[in-house]
Design brief:
three-stranded antiparallel sheet, alpha/beta, 362 residues, 17 strands, 14 helices, TIM Barrel, nine-stranded mixed sheet
């Protein structure tokens, strides 16, 4: 019997790197797209074993820089190598400023049925600070273009906890996003790694430091406002209308198998985790040398299943091996019982890392 998996395709190209970005991405190398797609096809042929695929996710980078015909050709290759579910969720991340109605209609015709738009903010000052290539008006236009192209499953990404961002500004961002009526919202607190331009700007006092208290207040405002508008807070950073949860990401949070294809792509198959090289030039040679290769012990597998499951509003069933941790975290107000399951409290969602590390094997 073939294994059920989710399939992730990494597209590392960007027109310009955002000031907060620490993902593996390459600006000004779009001329390498044809060679990169050929390398993707080669890797797909080497990795495929007629697995049953329930979801495909094109992430980046900026996957919407792939021409529609190339994206369609890549999906055709996937269909020829895997058993793709007829109802498979096929998502592509897209940035406003890189898409129009014609492009979106073409990729929908090719089989993409879920769009994730990285609008990040609806405030031009914030967008400029983040180094985004689009304006707030272009973000709104991209949502209209998606609807006109026939997309009825739309996610919007927003970032909160920005330097100097007020509660009122964040409320306006949320209200503006809600007015666009997306099926799904992903809200991420700004997290900066050392060496990114925005990190250096804060270090050099060009921007105020991130205020963790305001960031926490913005998160709680999001919970309240989105609940009032009918969105289910099904994962720490994700909200969806009923039935519109991201099926692909649920595979990750349920610790189920997935195959990652492309530069820096990670895979988790059969108690084994591995990652491709993050060097684009090496990847283009077609040599699949893993940058990371790790066997997952039963204890680590169990711990990761618990940690990932606790990110979800459904929580986890309590394994007797974690009874001590559960009792301690419940007493601290970070976990609560719901029948035979435990889940994060509101405070626990704010302090998730304080919960998660306690489940790791010694």
């Amino acid at each position: 019997m073939t294994q059920d998996i989710a399939l992730y395709i990494h597209v590392p190209f960007c027109r310009r790197r955002c000031r907060y970005c620490s993902f593996v991405s390459y600006a000004h190398r779009q001329t390498d797209i044809p060679a990169y797609v050929n390398a993707l096809k080669c890797e797909l042929e080497q990795r495929a074993n007629r697995e049953q695929v329930g979801s495909i996710y094109f992430g980046g980078g900026t996957p919407s820089l792939l021409p529609a015909e190339i994206l369609g050709d890549l999906l055709a290759a996937i269909r020829s190598l895997f058993d793709l579910d007829e109802a498979a969720e096929i998502t592509i991340e897209a940035n406003p400023g890189t898409v129009d109605r014609t492009y979106l209609a073409d990729i929908k015709k090719a089989g993409v049925n879920r769009l994730s738009l990285g609008i990040q903010s609806l405030n031009d000052r914030e967008l400029e600070m983040l180094g985004r290539i689009h304006t707030a008006a272009e973000a709104i236009d991209s949502v209209k273009a998606a609807r006109n192209a026939g997309f009825d499953n739309l996610n919007l990404d927003l970032i909160y906890g920005l330097p100097g961002q007020t509660m009122k500004e964040w409320q306006m961002a949320l209200s503006g996003a809600l007015a666009l009526k997306p099926e799904h919202l992903s809200l991420y607190a700004l997290s900066l790694e050392e060496g990114t331009p925005l990190y250096r700007m804060i270090e050099d006092k060009q921007l105020p430091a991130i205020d963790p208290d305001i960031t926490a207040d913005q998160y709680e405002l999001s919970e309240n406002l989105l609940t009032q508008h009918g969105y289910r807070h099904y994962e720490i950073s994700n909200w969806a209308l009923p039935g519109r949860e991201c099926h692909h990401n649920l595979v990750y949070w349920h610790n189920q198998p997935y195959l990652g294809i492309g530069v820096a792509a990670h895979s988790h198959i059969g108690n084994h985790r591995f990652a491709n090289t993050s060097n684009l030039d090496k990847y283009l040679t077609g040599t699949l040398l893993p940058e990371m290769d790790e066997a997952i012990s039963p204890d680590l597998e169990l711990a990761e299943t618990a940690i990932l499951g606790l990110r979800l509003d459904e929580g986890i069933g309590v394994d007797t091996r974690y009874q001590e941790q559960v009792e301690e975290l419940t007493a601290a107000g970070l976990l609560e019982r719901a029948g035979r399951r435990v889940k994060l409290t509101g405070r626990g969602r704010l302090l998730g890392n304080e919960v998660f590390w306690r489940f790791l094997p010694e």
